[in-house]
Amino acid sequence: MPLSPILRGQATYPFVRLNDAAAARRAQGLEVIDFGMGDPRESTDPRIIQALKNGVLERMGYPAAVGLPELREAISRWAARRFGVLLDPADIIPTLGTKEAIYSFAQVVLDPAAGKDTVLLTEPGYPVYERGALFAGARVETLPLLEANGFLPDLDAVSPEVWRRTALVWVNYPNNPTCVCAPPELYERLAALAREHDFVVASDEAYTELWFDEPPVSALQLTDLTNVAVFNTLSKRSSMTGYRSGFVAGDPALIGALKQFRPTIGTAPQEFVQRASVVAWDDEAHVERARAVYARKRRLLLRALAAKEVRVAGADATMYLWVATPAGETSEEFAARLLEHGVLVAPGSFLGPSGEGYVRFALVPTEDECARAVELLEVAL
Hints:
It contains 14 helices and 13 strands. The protein has two domains: 5-43 and 285-380, Aspartate Aminotransferase, domain 1; 58-281, Type I PLP-dependent aspartate aminotransferase-like (Major domain) (Aspartate Aminotransferase, domain 2), CATH 3.40.640. The protein has helices at residues 5-8, 14-27, 46-54, 69-83, 99-109, 127-135, 160-165, 184-197, 234-237, 252-265, 271-281, 285-307, 331-340, 367-380, and strands at residues 33-34, 92-95, 118-123, 139-144, 166-172, 200-204, 228-233, 246-250, 312-314, 320-324, 343-344, 346-347, 358-362. The chain has a seven-stranded mixed beta sheet with strand order 2-8-7-6-5-3-4, sandwiched between helices. Strands 9-10-13-12 form a four-stranded antiparallel beta sheet.
C-alpha cells in the first residue's frame, strides 16, 4: 500500500508512548500518578459550561471559518486588557484549538519555487511544529534551547544562507518544556530579522496565562506586526482542552492569507463552543483561581525535589517543571526509575535532542495526587 514517506518515517507520537507506559502499569493493578501529558484536569468554570449548553440549538449548520463576530470581539477585548494592544477583530481568526492551525501553517507560507523552503523551530519542544513542516515538504532546521543560553535560541548561530531560505520561524514562550519566558528583545530581534529576510515569525503562546511571579509578554505587543502571527488557546488558560478553541492574530496581510486558506482545510470551533469561549475570554477570575492551584502544586513538588537535591532547571511559568536528571542517568532511565515507583514523567529526549538530561513534570494531577506523588518520590529518589 502506498504511504507518504514522511508518515513512514515518523516515530510513534511521544505522548502515545507515555500513555502506553502508564496503561501497562495500571493493567498490573499498580498505582500511577501521571505527570506525563499537559492535559489540565482542573474543572472548567461552571459559567463556561452553562454557556456551552445554552449555545446548543435544535439545528446547527457548519461554523463559518472566520468564526463568530462576538468571539473575535471577546478575544480583542482580552488582548487589550492583558497586553494593552488593540487588535481589529477582523484580524483575528478563531481556530479549532491551535494544534491543527499550527500543523497546517507551513502550507500557507512555504514557497519553494522562490527559494523559501525552510522552517526553523526551537527544540526541545512541541512535536507538531516539525511534523507540520515536514508534511508540507519543508526543510527543517532546529534552534537548540540550551540551559547555557537561558533556554533562548541563539539567533546569531543561524547562517545567512539559512536565513535566505527561511519561510517560517516557530517560537514558543513561555516555553514548553523549559518553563522560561521570553524577553521583549527576543521578539523585537526576530521581527526585525523577519522583515530583513522576508520570513514569518509564528509565536505559539499557549502558556502566557500560567505564570507565578510576573506576567509574560507577547509578540502581539510588537509595535510592528509585519510578518508576525500569534497563536493562543483556551486549552491551558481555562482548562478547556476538550473544547478545542484557540485563535490566530497578527499581521493583517498574513491573516488575510489564512482567511483564503482555512475554508479549504480548517474550521472554527462549533458555534456552541464559540459561545462558551466568549465567556472564557471575557473572564479572568477563573484563570486566577487556576494559577493559584498550579502554584500550590508547584510548591509541593519543588520542596520535594529540593529535599532530595534534584535540580530544577526551569519553573518560571507554564504548567510544567523542567528537572535535570541525576548524574549518570539518561532522561529515559530516570523516567523509568520514577515510573517503577508510580510517578510518570516525560523524558526530555521525547521532546528533542536538546531535551536529553532533563525530564518534564506536567502539574496536572490533583493536589491530593501531587501530595501522594511527594510520598512516592521520597522513596524513588
